[in-house]
Design goal:
Radius of gyration: 22 Å
Shape: globular
CATH topology of the largest domain: Phosphoribosyl-aminoimidazole Synthetase, Chain A, domain 2
Oligomer: single chain
Order of helices and strands: HEEEHHEHEEEHHHEHEHHEHEE
CATH class of the largest domain: Alpha Beta
Largest sheet: 6 strands, mixed
Distance between the termini: 64 Å
Helix content: 25-40%
Strand order of the largest sheet: 8-10-7-11-9-12
Number of domains: 2
Length: 357
């Protein structure tokens, strides 16, 4: 039998690598999880050709729509290696909604795209259930998505993920470098692990060092695979709570710490003429990062490829720092004052000083 013909000799879509029945079963399995993400503004349900969301314009004076698109990257390879697919969906949501909230936007809804070599309904349902969990944590509705089976382009167990989220922010409440001032305090919010960045480097270290994903290396308190698959912390609602409590006069900017590291992302919200100085001694380097360094990753590379324990930073007015820390503590987000912004000559800059605890 050829790859495009069934036993009768006829060409079929299933024999070509696309199983429509499996796709429909996957939708059935994920339906309840998706429906739990609904917000009152969602119109219609799963199964339409487009997701509909009613924007209540009466709530806003001058609304701006914000959008963000991202994926999970090669962390998926570890999910496949461990055959655990229920957390990478959370990572996917985090990558887009935590970018959205950096400008002060409230995530409204999200759509996902899953490309795979073969639709295994239970696996697809696990992935999308994770996406739905992430949406719930972010307060966003999952209004639709697409699962594409690419049997002749991808291996049977291969898949990749992407998503786009849309949010809204008042035009006069947009956060960013324009609001940041000399004397502002930089508050760091702890990461939950590597999040979804640096995994090409992590995987190379694991491979070259012969590390066992099911084992527990010295310095870690659980199996390495569990540490590496820890889902990304979703900060969206915590950041929005800060803005709601302190206002844009108190919270000036957020920076989502992804590829490029802490300094490389913080500088994106620093205006020319200011410098962010971040003190390493205010937190401990995560054990998993130390493990990577013990197997040959230089410190300078760690601080560019990994978040090194900080997943989000906020630039806040100095008289609001204590209130910001108290609110984050109440919400269960470990946070601390990591640095300050001060005047400098020339272009915006951010640098790390001191040594980790």
């Amino acid at each position: 039998m050829s790859t495009q013909q069934d036993r009768s000799g006829e060409f079929t879509y299933a024999a070509s690598g696309v199983d429509i029945d499996a796709g429909e079963r996957a939708v059935t399995l994920m339906r309840s999880a998706v429906e739990r993400t609904n917000r009152p503004e969602v119109v219609g349900g799963l199964g339409g050709f487009a997701g509909l969301f009613r924007l209540d314009v009466a709530r806003y004076r001058s609304p701006l729509l914000a959008s963000s698109t991202d994926g999970v990257g090669t962390k998926i390879a570890l999910a496949r290696a461990l055959d655990r697919h229920d957390t990478v969906g959370i990572d996917l949501v985090a990558m887009v909604v935590d970018d959205l909230v950096a400008c002060g936007a409230e995530p409204l809804f999200l759509q996902d795209y899953v490309a795979c070599g073969r639709v295994v309904p239970e696996r697809i349902a696990a992935i999308v259930t994770g996406i739905a969990t992430g949406c719930t944590l972010a307060g966003a509705a999952l209004v639709g998505g697409e699962t594409a089976e690419h049997g002749d382009l991808m291996g049977a167990d291969d898949y990749d993920l992407a998503a786009t989220a849309v949010g809204v922010v008042e035009e006069d409440s947009v956060l960013g470098p324009e609001r940041v001032r000399d004397g502002d305090v930089v508050i760091a919010m702890a990461s939950s692990g590597f999040h979804s960045n640096g995994y090409s480097l992590v995987r190379r270290v694991v491979d070259r060092a012969g590390l066992d994903l099911t084992g527990t290396p010295a310095g870690l308190d659980r199996p390495l695979g569990d540490v590496l698959l820890e889902p990304t912390r979703i900060y969206a609602l915590d950041c929005l709570a800060l803005v709601a409590e302190l206002g844009v006069s108190g919270v000036h900017a957020f920076a989502h710490i992804t590829g490029g590291g802490l300094a490389g992302n913080t500088v994106r919200v620093v205006p020319d003429g200011l410098e962010a100085v971040l003190d390493r001694s205010t937190w401990a380097l995560p054990a998993a990062v130390s493990l990577m360094e013990s197997h040959g990753v230089p410190r300078a590379e760690s601080e560019r490829a990994f978040n090194c324990g900080v997943g989000m930073v906020a630039a806040v007015a100095p008289d609001q720092a204590d209130a910001a820390l108290a609110l984050l503590a109440d919400r269960g987000v470990p946070a601390w004052v990591a640095g300050t912004l001060s005047a400098s000559d020339g272009a915006a800059s951010a640098r790390l000083v001191g040594s980790y605890r």
